[in-house]
């Protein structure tokens, strides 16, 4: 399934017939294909247990795949290139893992890695983004252990955006957040898309159809219980 088919635009990310197997050889996901183009806002919806998270983790190259391949800018990504890939294709999980220390420590965490060092300049723009949303005074100095689930997820999102990703992969990032924080999360994504100078894209798994309609330009349905699964546009 392809995202946009906009003339000659280069495909950013392509999953070509990928699949994951259990150690017993049973397919958990099988023959799944997806293309992501610059500016794509893709929502994936589908039943519980249908393999959406497995698919997204495979796209993020967090899990090994047993068939197919992942292409980034039309190039096969090998194991050695995975750190560079992960700094461009950033994965945000449902329950963020924050490191010990303050919010600021967390925001700057990924910048300590060589591959991300040239991204330090992004901190200022992300802090500006944060300042446009109401946050308690001294938020940057709050300990991560003292944050609410919603605040933690906002911090995880900003931490991801500091990396100036080309693609953000999000696995139900707002499930469990209250409506106000959910909207705040969506607005941050919206501003990021508006202000980024590199036409980024996202793939967003959600159970919430109204959210999918709010945030996405394309909604794809993930089918359950089929081995020959394909993602289809709604
Ligand atoms: N490592 C694994 N080994 C075996 N089965 C697994 C493994 N990981 C996940 N599964 C199974 O694969 C199926 C798909 O899981 P996945 O988490 O991708 O579903 P999902 O569509 O994201 O569900 P939800 O909407 O509830 O988050 C589930 O039945 C899950 O139990």
UniProtKB/TrEMBL annotation:
Keyword Transport: yes
SUPFAM superfamilies noted in UniProt: P-loop containing nucleoside triphosphate hydrolases (SSF52540)
Gene Ontology biological process terms in this record: transmembrane transport
SMART domains with a match to the protein in the record: AAA
Annotated CDD domains: ABC_cobalt_CbiO_domain1 (cd03225)
GO-annotated cellular components: membrane
Pfam family, one: ABC_tran
InterPro entries recorded: AAA+_ATPase, ABC_transporter-like_ATP-bd, ABC_transpr_CbiO/EcfA_su, P-loop_NTPase
GO MF annotation, one: ATP binding
Transmembrane domains' residue ranges: none
Signal peptide interval: none
ABC transporter domain location: 13-234
Keywords, comma-separated and alphabetical: ATP-binding, Nucleotide-binding, Transport
Chain segments annotated as coiled-coil in the UniProt record: none
Protein name, UniProt field: Putative ABC transporter ATP-binding protein YbbL
Organism whose genome encodes this protein: Gimesia panareensis
Lineage: Bacteria, Pseudomonadati, Planctomycetota, Planctomycetia, Planctomycetales
């Amino acid at each position: 399934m392809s995202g946009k088919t906009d003339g000659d635009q280069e495909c950013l990310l392509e999953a070509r017939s990928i699949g994951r197997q259990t150690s017993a050889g049973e397919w958990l996901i099988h023959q799944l294909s997806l293309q992501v183009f610059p500016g794509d806002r893709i929502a994936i919806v589908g039943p519980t247990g249908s393999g959406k998270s497995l698919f997204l983790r495979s796209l993020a190259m967090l899990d090994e795949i047993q068939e197919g391949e992942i292409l980034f800018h039309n190039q096969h990504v090998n194991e050695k290139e995975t750190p560079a890939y992960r700094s461009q294709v950033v994965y945000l999980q449902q329950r963020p893992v924050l490191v010990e220390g303050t919010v600021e420590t967390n925001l700057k965490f990924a910048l300590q890695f060589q591959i991300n060092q040239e991204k330090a300049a992004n901190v200022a723009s992300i802090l500006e983004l944060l300042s446009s949303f109401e946050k308690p005074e001294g938020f940057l100095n709050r300990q991560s252990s003292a944050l609410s689930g919603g605040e933690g997820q906002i911090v995880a999102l900003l931490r991801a955006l500091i990396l100036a990703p080309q693609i953000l992969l999000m696995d139900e990032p707002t499930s469990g957040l209250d409506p106000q924080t959910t909207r705040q999360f969506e607005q941050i994504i919206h501003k990021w898309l508006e202000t980024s100078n590199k036409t980024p894209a996202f793939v967003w798994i959600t159970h919430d159809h109204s959210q999918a309609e709010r945030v996405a330009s394309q909604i794809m349905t993930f089918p359950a219980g089929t081995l020959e699964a394909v993602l289809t546009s709604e």
